[in-house]
Amino acid sequence: MISTDFAPNEKMDDAIVSFKTLFQPWKWRRGRELTRAKNRMKSFFPDHEVFFFLSGRSALYNLLQALHLPKGSEVLVQAFTCEAVVLPILALGLKPVYVDVESKTLSMDLDDLKKKLSNKSKVLIVQRTFGMEPIFLKEIQEEAKKNKMFYIEDLAHGFADTNKTSLNGAAVLSFGRTKTLSSVFGGAIITKNKSFMKSLKSLQTSMDLPPIPFIFKILLYKPLSVFIKKTYPFLLGKIIHKISVSIGLITPEISIREKRGEFDPLLNRGLPNACAILLLNQLGKFQKISTKRRESVKEYEEKLGVIFKNLFHTQSAPLLRFPVAVENRDEMVKKVAKKQIFLGVWYNQVIAPKGFNLNKAGYIPGSCKKAEEVCNQILNLPTNVSKKERARVIQLFQQ
Ligand SMILES: Cc1ncc(COP(=O)(O)O)c(C=O)c1O
Protein backbone atom coordinates (compact mmCIF):
# COMPACT_ATOMS: atom_id res chain seq x y z
CA MET A 1 0.00 0.00 0.00
CA ILE A 2 1.31 3.43 -0.99
CA SER A 3 -0.58 6.15 0.81
CA THR A 4 -0.36 9.92 0.61
CA ASP A 5 -3.15 10.61 3.10
CA PHE A 6 -3.25 7.76 5.56
CA ALA A 7 -0.43 7.78 8.12
CA PRO A 8 2.37 8.60 5.62
CA ASN A 9 4.91 9.17 8.43
CA GLU A 10 4.22 6.26 10.71
CA LYS A 11 6.82 3.50 10.71
CA MET A 12 7.50 0.54 13.01
CA ASP A 13 9.82 2.54 15.33
CA ASP A 14 7.10 5.19 15.79
CA ALA A 15 4.58 2.45 16.54
CA ILE A 16 6.88 0.91 19.18
CA VAL A 17 7.52 4.23 20.96
CA SER A 18 3.81 4.97 20.97
CA PHE A 19 2.88 1.48 22.15
CA LYS A 20 5.36 1.68 25.06
CA THR A 21 3.97 5.09 26.07
CA LEU A 22 0.48 3.58 26.22
CA PHE A 23 1.70 1.70 29.31
CA GLN A 24 3.22 4.81 30.95
CA PRO A 25 0.15 6.95 31.66
CA TRP A 26 2.09 9.11 34.14
CA LYS A 27 3.94 10.52 31.12
CA TRP A 28 0.85 11.37 29.10
CA ARG A 29 -0.04 14.85 30.32
CA ARG A 30 3.11 16.57 31.58
CA GLY A 31 6.76 15.62 31.44
CA ARG A 32 10.28 16.58 30.49
CA GLU A 33 9.82 15.51 26.86
CA LEU A 34 7.86 18.72 26.24
CA THR A 35 10.93 20.80 27.13
CA ARG A 36 13.23 18.51 25.13
CA ALA A 37 11.00 18.74 22.05
CA LYS A 38 10.81 22.51 22.45
CA ASN A 39 14.60 22.77 22.58
CA ARG A 40 14.94 20.60 19.47
CA MET A 41 12.49 22.82 17.62
CA LYS A 42 14.38 25.92 18.77
CA SER A 43 17.52 24.57 17.09
CA PHE A 44 15.74 24.98 13.72
CA PHE A 45 14.79 28.57 14.54
CA PRO A 46 17.66 30.16 16.48
CA ASP A 47 16.71 33.26 18.54
CA HIS A 48 13.02 32.36 18.39
CA GLU A 49 10.61 31.19 21.07
CA VAL A 50 8.51 28.06 20.50
CA PHE A 51 4.98 27.66 21.87
CA PHE A 52 3.28 24.29 21.54
CA PHE A 53 -0.43 23.63 20.99
CA LEU A 54 -2.60 20.61 20.22
CA SER A 55 -2.92 21.58 16.55
CA GLY A 56 -1.78 24.07 13.94
CA ARG A 57 -5.27 25.60 13.95
CA SER A 58 -5.04 26.08 17.72
CA ALA A 59 -1.63 27.77 17.28
CA LEU A 60 -3.11 30.13 14.69
CA TYR A 61 -6.15 30.87 16.87
CA ASN A 62 -4.02 31.80 19.88
CA LEU A 63 -1.60 33.82 17.79
CA LEU A 64 -4.41 35.88 16.26
CA GLN A 65 -6.03 36.30 19.66
CA ALA A 66 -2.76 37.53 21.16
CA LEU A 67 -2.70 40.33 18.56
CA HIS A 68 -5.88 41.89 20.08
CA LEU A 69 -7.24 43.08 16.75
CA PRO A 70 -10.48 45.06 16.49
CA LYS A 71 -13.47 42.96 15.34
CA GLY A 72 -13.86 42.97 11.56
CA SER A 73 -10.12 43.40 10.93
CA GLU A 74 -9.11 41.77 7.68
CA VAL A 75 -6.79 38.78 7.53
CA LEU A 76 -5.39 38.19 4.06
CA VAL A 77 -5.11 34.53 3.31
CA GLN A 78 -4.75 32.65 0.08
CA ALA A 79 -7.48 30.61 -1.54
CA PHE A 80 -6.32 27.00 -2.13
CA THR A 81 -6.00 26.35 1.56
CA CYS A 82 -7.83 24.30 4.17
CA GLU A 83 -10.56 25.11 6.62
CA ALA A 84 -8.15 24.70 9.55
CA VAL A 85 -6.67 28.06 8.50
CA VAL A 86 -9.95 29.84 8.02
CA LEU A 87 -11.98 28.68 11.05
CA PRO A 88 -9.74 30.38 13.68
CA ILE A 89 -10.06 33.68 11.76
CA LEU A 90 -13.85 33.44 11.67
CA ALA A 91 -14.09 32.29 15.30
CA LEU A 92 -12.34 35.47 16.45
CA GLY A 93 -14.74 37.73 14.54
CA LEU A 94 -12.08 38.64 12.00
CA LYS A 95 -12.67 38.73 8.25
CA PRO A 96 -10.76 36.42 5.90
CA VAL A 97 -9.96 38.11 2.59
CA TYR A 98 -9.03 35.56 -0.04
CA VAL A 99 -6.10 36.22 -2.35
CA ASP A 100 -5.66 34.19 -5.54
CA VAL A 101 -2.62 31.96 -6.10
CA GLU A 102 0.08 32.18 -8.75
CA SER A 103 0.67 29.15 -10.92
CA LYS A 104 4.29 28.31 -10.03
CA THR A 105 4.24 27.63 -6.29
CA LEU A 106 0.51 27.84 -5.53
CA SER A 107 1.16 30.61 -3.07
CA MET A 108 -0.20 34.17 -2.91
CA ASP A 109 -0.25 36.13 -6.15
CA LEU A 110 1.34 39.55 -5.66
CA ASP A 111 -0.94 41.51 -8.00
CA ASP A 112 -4.08 40.04 -6.49
CA LEU A 113 -2.75 40.74 -3.01
CA LYS A 114 -2.25 44.41 -3.85
CA LYS A 115 -5.80 44.59 -5.25
CA LYS A 116 -7.30 43.14 -2.09
CA LEU A 117 -5.56 45.35 0.46
CA SER A 118 -7.65 47.90 2.31
CA ASN A 119 -7.30 50.12 5.37
CA LYS A 120 -8.77 47.26 7.44
CA SER A 121 -6.01 44.79 6.40
CA LYS A 122 -4.19 43.89 9.61
CA VAL A 123 -2.71 40.41 9.13
CA LEU A 124 -1.17 38.61 6.19
CA ILE A 125 -0.77 34.82 6.17
CA VAL A 126 1.66 33.38 3.64
CA GLN A 127 1.31 29.68 3.02
CA ARG A 128 4.18 27.52 1.82
CA THR A 129 2.02 25.12 -0.14
CA PHE A 130 3.47 21.59 0.05
CA GLY A 131 6.65 23.24 1.37
CA MET A 132 7.41 25.16 -1.84
CA GLU A 133 9.09 28.54 -1.43
CA PRO A 134 6.59 31.19 -2.63
CA ILE A 135 7.99 32.97 -5.68
CA PHE A 136 6.79 36.36 -4.38
CA LEU A 137 7.98 35.75 -0.80
CA LYS A 138 10.22 38.84 -0.57
CA GLU A 139 7.72 41.14 -2.25
CA ILE A 140 4.90 39.88 -0.02
CA GLN A 141 7.02 40.46 3.09
CA GLU A 142 7.73 43.99 1.89
CA GLU A 143 4.05 44.58 1.23
CA ALA A 144 3.22 43.44 4.78
CA LYS A 145 5.83 45.83 6.16
CA LYS A 146 4.71 48.76 4.00
CA ASN A 147 1.09 48.31 5.04
CA LYS A 148 1.95 47.68 8.72
CA MET A 149 0.33 44.24 8.69
CA PHE A 150 1.30 41.48 11.07
CA TYR A 151 3.11 38.83 9.03
CA ILE A 152 2.45 35.13 9.60
CA GLU A 153 4.15 32.36 7.69
CA ASP A 154 2.13 29.17 7.54
CA LEU A 155 4.77 26.44 7.66
CA ALA A 156 2.26 23.65 8.29
CA HIS A 157 3.50 21.88 5.14
CA GLY A 158 7.16 22.01 6.06
CA PHE A 159 9.98 24.07 7.41
CA ALA A 160 13.07 22.14 6.29
CA ASP A 161 14.23 24.78 3.84
CA THR A 162 13.08 27.91 5.58
CA ASN A 163 16.12 29.01 7.56
CA LYS A 164 16.82 31.74 5.08
CA THR A 165 13.49 33.35 5.91
CA SER A 166 13.51 36.01 8.55
CA LEU A 167 10.46 35.43 10.66
CA ASN A 168 9.96 38.92 11.96
CA GLY A 169 6.28 38.24 12.61
CA ALA A 170 5.51 34.65 13.50
CA ALA A 171 5.25 31.21 11.95
CA VAL A 172 2.69 28.51 12.52
CA LEU A 173 3.68 24.85 12.38
CA SER A 174 1.64 21.66 12.37
CA PHE A 175 2.59 18.21 13.62
CA GLY A 176 -0.64 16.64 12.42
CA ARG A 177 -0.50 13.05 11.15
CA THR A 178 -0.29 14.10 7.48
CA LYS A 179 2.44 16.71 7.95
CA THR A 180 6.27 16.58 7.76
CA LEU A 181 6.61 15.48 11.37
CA SER A 182 3.74 13.67 13.00
CA SER A 183 2.77 13.56 16.64
CA VAL A 184 -0.74 12.71 15.34
CA PHE A 185 -1.99 16.05 16.68
CA GLY A 186 0.25 19.03 17.33
CA GLY A 187 1.18 22.54 16.35
CA ALA A 188 3.41 25.45 17.29
CA ILE A 189 3.91 29.19 17.10
CA ILE A 190 7.47 30.32 16.36
CA THR A 191 8.27 33.96 17.03
CA LYS A 192 10.84 36.42 18.29
CA ASN A 193 8.31 39.23 18.50
CA LYS A 194 8.47 40.32 22.14
CA SER A 195 5.18 42.26 22.11
CA PHE A 196 2.94 39.26 22.77
CA MET A 197 5.42 36.67 24.04
CA LYS A 198 4.43 37.29 27.66
CA SER A 199 0.76 36.55 27.04
CA LEU A 200 1.67 33.40 25.06
CA LYS A 201 3.93 32.25 27.90
CA SER A 202 1.21 32.54 30.50
CA LEU A 203 -1.28 30.94 28.14
CA GLN A 204 1.05 27.93 27.77
CA THR A 205 1.02 27.23 31.48
CA SER A 206 -2.71 27.78 31.98
CA MET A 207 -4.12 26.05 28.90
CA ASP A 208 -6.21 22.91 29.36
CA LEU A 209 -4.85 19.66 27.99
CA PRO A 210 -7.03 17.25 25.97
CA PRO A 211 -8.97 14.64 27.97
CA ILE A 212 -7.29 11.31 28.80
CA PRO A 213 -9.34 9.22 26.29
CA PHE A 214 -8.25 11.66 23.57
CA ILE A 215 -4.56 11.16 24.48
CA PHE A 216 -5.11 7.38 24.60
CA LYS A 217 -6.41 7.46 21.03
CA ILE A 218 -3.45 9.57 19.90
CA LEU A 219 -1.09 6.92 21.28
CA LEU A 220 -3.09 4.09 19.78
CA TYR A 221 -3.04 5.71 16.34
CA LYS A 222 0.59 4.92 15.49
CA PRO A 223 0.62 1.15 16.23
CA LEU A 224 -2.87 0.78 14.79
CA SER A 225 -2.07 2.65 11.57
CA VAL A 226 1.17 0.70 11.04
CA PHE A 227 -0.75 -2.56 11.46
CA ILE A 228 -3.47 -1.35 9.07
CA LYS A 229 -0.91 -0.36 6.42
CA LYS A 230 0.91 -3.70 6.68
CA THR A 231 -2.27 -5.77 6.40
CA TYR A 232 -4.17 -3.57 3.95
CA PRO A 233 -3.29 -5.65 0.87
CA PHE A 234 -4.85 -8.72 2.54
CA LEU A 235 -8.14 -6.93 3.26
CA LEU A 236 -7.62 -7.24 7.03
CA GLY A 237 -6.21 -3.71 7.24
CA LYS A 238 -9.13 -2.29 5.30
CA ILE A 239 -11.63 -3.97 7.64
CA ILE A 240 -9.79 -2.86 10.80
CA HIS A 241 -9.55 0.67 9.46
CA LYS A 242 -13.30 0.80 8.75
CA ILE A 243 -14.17 -0.58 12.19
CA SER A 244 -11.70 1.72 14.02
CA VAL A 245 -13.13 4.80 12.32
CA SER A 246 -16.75 3.77 12.86
CA ILE A 247 -16.35 3.04 16.58
CA GLY A 248 -14.28 6.18 17.09
CA LEU A 249 -10.93 4.54 17.89
CA ILE A 250 -9.33 6.81 15.31
CA THR A 251 -10.01 10.49 15.99
CA PRO A 252 -10.61 12.19 12.63
CA GLU A 253 -8.31 15.04 11.57
CA ILE A 254 -11.35 17.27 11.06
CA SER A 255 -14.06 17.05 13.70
CA ILE A 256 -17.82 16.93 13.06
CA ARG A 257 -18.13 20.43 14.42
CA GLU A 258 -15.44 21.69 12.04
CA LYS A 259 -17.18 19.99 9.12
CA ARG A 260 -20.21 22.11 10.01
CA GLY A 261 -18.00 25.16 9.68
CA GLU A 262 -17.36 25.90 13.38
CA PHE A 263 -14.07 26.21 15.22
CA ASP A 264 -13.79 23.26 17.62
CA PRO A 265 -12.57 24.13 21.14
CA LEU A 266 -11.66 20.45 21.69
CA LEU A 267 -8.68 20.92 19.36
CA ASN A 268 -7.74 24.24 20.93
CA ARG A 269 -5.72 22.84 23.84
CA GLY A 270 -2.18 22.58 25.08
CA LEU A 271 0.13 19.87 23.73
CA PRO A 272 0.26 16.84 26.03
CA ASN A 273 3.64 15.31 26.85
CA ALA A 274 2.57 12.10 25.03
CA CYS A 275 2.66 14.05 21.74
CA ALA A 276 6.10 15.45 22.61
CA ILE A 277 7.36 11.86 23.03
CA LEU A 278 6.07 10.99 19.56
CA LEU A 279 7.45 14.21 18.11
CA LEU A 280 10.92 13.56 19.54
CA ASN A 281 11.04 10.19 17.80
CA GLN A 282 10.17 11.84 14.49
CA LEU A 283 12.69 14.64 15.10
CA GLY A 284 15.36 12.00 15.63
CA LYS A 285 14.99 10.96 11.99
CA PHE A 286 14.09 14.34 10.55
CA GLN A 287 17.23 14.57 8.41
CA LYS A 288 16.65 11.08 7.07
CA ILE A 289 13.02 11.82 6.20
CA SER A 290 13.96 15.15 4.58
CA THR A 291 16.63 13.43 2.48
CA LYS A 292 14.09 10.85 1.34
CA ARG A 293 11.58 13.55 0.44
CA ARG A 294 14.24 15.48 -1.45
CA GLU A 295 15.28 12.35 -3.38
CA SER A 296 11.64 11.69 -4.28
CA VAL A 297 11.14 15.25 -5.49
CA LYS A 298 14.33 15.10 -7.59
CA GLU A 299 13.28 11.85 -9.21
CA TYR A 300 9.72 13.05 -9.87
CA GLU A 301 11.14 16.24 -11.42
CA GLU A 302 13.47 14.27 -13.64
CA LYS A 303 11.09 11.54 -14.77
CA LEU A 304 7.81 13.46 -14.82
CA GLY A 305 9.41 16.55 -16.35
CA VAL A 306 9.52 14.56 -19.60
CA ILE A 307 5.78 13.90 -19.44
CA PHE A 308 4.41 17.16 -18.01
CA LYS A 309 5.25 20.31 -19.92
CA ASN A 310 4.96 22.60 -16.91
CA LEU A 311 5.86 21.19 -13.54
CA PHE A 312 5.39 23.38 -10.48
CA HIS A 313 8.41 25.22 -9.05
CA THR A 314 9.42 22.33 -6.79
CA GLN A 315 13.16 23.13 -6.84
CA SER A 316 14.34 19.77 -5.45
CA ALA A 317 13.09 20.79 -2.01
CA PRO A 318 12.05 18.14 0.55
CA LEU A 319 8.35 18.68 -0.15
CA LEU A 320 5.52 17.20 1.88
CA ARG A 321 3.79 16.17 -1.35
CA PHE A 322 4.76 16.53 -5.00
CA PRO A 323 2.06 18.37 -6.94
CA VAL A 324 1.10 17.76 -10.55
CA ALA A 325 -1.91 19.02 -12.50
CA VAL A 326 -3.90 16.47 -14.49
CA GLU A 327 -7.14 16.84 -16.43
CA ASN A 328 -8.84 13.63 -15.33
CA ARG A 329 -7.80 13.81 -11.67
CA ASP A 330 -10.75 12.16 -9.89
CA GLU A 331 -10.92 9.34 -12.43
CA MET A 332 -7.21 8.70 -12.04
CA VAL A 333 -7.34 8.67 -8.23
CA LYS A 334 -10.08 6.02 -8.33
CA LYS A 335 -8.31 3.95 -10.96
CA VAL A 336 -4.94 3.77 -9.21
CA ALA A 337 -6.55 3.06 -5.82
CA LYS A 338 -7.34 -0.38 -7.24
CA LYS A 339 -3.59 -0.92 -7.44
CA GLN A 340 -3.25 0.01 -3.74
CA ILE A 341 -1.76 3.40 -4.63
CA PHE A 342 -3.60 6.20 -2.87
CA LEU A 343 -2.77 9.65 -4.22
CA GLY A 344 -3.73 12.91 -2.53
CA VAL A 345 -6.07 15.69 -3.66
CA TRP A 346 -5.01 18.65 -1.51
CA TYR A 347 -6.81 20.93 -2.20
CA ASN A 348 -9.85 19.87 -4.19
CA GLN A 349 -11.79 22.96 -3.15
CA VAL A 350 -10.58 26.57 -2.68
CA ILE A 351 -11.08 26.01 1.04
CA ALA A 352 -10.80 22.26 1.51
CA PRO A 353 -12.17 19.72 2.15
CA LYS A 354 -14.87 19.38 -0.47
CA GLY A 355 -18.24 20.07 1.07
CA PHE A 356 -16.99 22.83 3.38
CA ASN A 357 -19.47 25.71 3.16
CA LEU A 358 -17.64 28.40 1.17
CA ASN A 359 -20.42 30.89 1.65
CA LYS A 360 -20.09 30.64 5.43
CA ALA A 361 -16.35 31.20 5.06
CA GLY A 362 -16.98 34.43 3.16
CA TYR A 363 -15.56 33.17 -0.12
CA ILE A 364 -17.07 34.89 -3.17
CA PRO A 365 -17.21 32.49 -6.16
CA GLY A 366 -15.01 33.72 -8.99
CA SER A 367 -12.87 35.92 -6.71
CA CYS A 368 -9.81 33.60 -7.00
CA LYS A 369 -10.04 32.13 -10.48
CA LYS A 370 -6.65 30.44 -10.61
CA ALA A 371 -7.24 28.69 -7.29
CA GLU A 372 -10.64 27.47 -8.50
CA GLU A 373 -9.06 26.08 -11.66
CA VAL A 374 -6.17 24.32 -9.86
CA CYS A 375 -8.57 22.67 -7.38
CA ASN A 376 -10.02 20.56 -10.18
CA GLN A 377 -6.67 19.33 -11.44
CA ILE A 378 -4.31 19.05 -8.53
CA LEU A 379 -2.93 15.65 -7.66
CA ASN A 380 -0.39 15.01 -4.87
CA LEU A 381 2.27 12.33 -5.08
CA PRO A 382 3.77 10.94 -1.87
CA THR A 383 7.37 11.91 -1.09
CA ASN A 384 8.05 9.92 2.10
CA VAL A 385 8.35 6.71 0.08
CA SER A 386 11.07 4.24 -0.90
CA LYS A 387 12.74 4.15 -4.32
CA LYS A 388 10.67 1.11 -5.23
CA GLU A 389 7.41 2.77 -4.25
CA ARG A 390 8.41 5.91 -6.16
CA ALA A 391 9.02 3.83 -9.27
CA ARG A 392 5.45 2.44 -9.01
CA VAL A 393 4.04 5.96 -8.78
CA ILE A 394 6.11 7.22 -11.73
CA GLN A 395 5.03 4.24 -13.78
CA LEU A 396 1.40 5.33 -13.48
CA PHE A 397 2.21 8.37 -15.59
CA GLN A 398 4.55 6.64 -17.99
CA GLN A 399 1.70 4.30 -18.91
C1 LIG B 1 -1.84 25.03 5.08
C2 LIG B 1 -2.29 24.55 6.41
N1 LIG B 1 -2.11 25.35 7.48
C3 LIG B 1 -2.49 24.97 8.71
C4 LIG B 1 -3.09 23.75 8.93
C5 LIG B 1 -3.53 23.40 10.32
O1 LIG B 1 -2.84 22.33 10.86
P1 LIG B 1 -3.55 21.35 11.93
O2 LIG B 1 -4.19 20.25 11.13
O3 LIG B 1 -2.43 20.87 12.79
O4 LIG B 1 -4.54 22.14 12.67
C6 LIG B 1 -3.28 22.89 7.85
C7 LIG B 1 -3.92 21.57 8.06
O5 LIG B 1 -4.02 20.74 7.20
C8 LIG B 1 -2.87 23.28 6.56
O6 LIG B 1 -3.03 22.49 5.48
Automatic annotation (TrEMBL):
<dbReference type="GO" id="GO:0000271">
    <property type="term" value="P:polysaccharide biosynthetic process"/>
</dbReference>
<feature type="modified residue" description="N6-(pyridoxal phosphate)lysine">
    <location>
        <position position="179"/>
    </location>
</feature>
<feature type="active site" description="Proton acceptor">
    <location>
        <position position="179"/>
    </location>
</feature>
<dbReference type="InterPro" id="IPR015421">
    <property type="entry name" value="PyrdxlP-dep_Trfase_major"/>
</dbReference>
<comment type="similarity">
    <text>Belongs to the DegT/DnrJ/EryC1 family.</text>
</comment>
<dbReference type="InterPro" id="IPR015422">
    <property type="entry name" value="PyrdxlP-dep_Trfase_small"/>
</dbReference>
<protein>
    <recommendedName>
        <fullName>DegT/DnrJ/EryC1/StrS aminotransferase family protein</fullName>
    </recommendedName>
</protein>
<keyword id="KW-0663">Pyridoxal phosphate</keyword>
<dbReference type="GO" id="GO:0030170">
    <property type="term" value="F:pyridoxal phosphate binding"/>
</dbReference>
<dbReference type="Pfam" id="PF01041">
    <property type="entry name" value="DegT_DnrJ_EryC1"/>
</dbReference>
<dbReference type="InterPro" id="IPR000653">
    <property type="entry name" value="DegT/StrS_aminotransferase"/>
</dbReference>
<dbReference type="GO" id="GO:0008483">
    <property type="term" value="F:transaminase activity"/>
</dbReference>
<dbReference type="InterPro" id="IPR015424">
    <property type="entry name" value="PyrdxlP-dep_Trfase"/>
</dbReference>
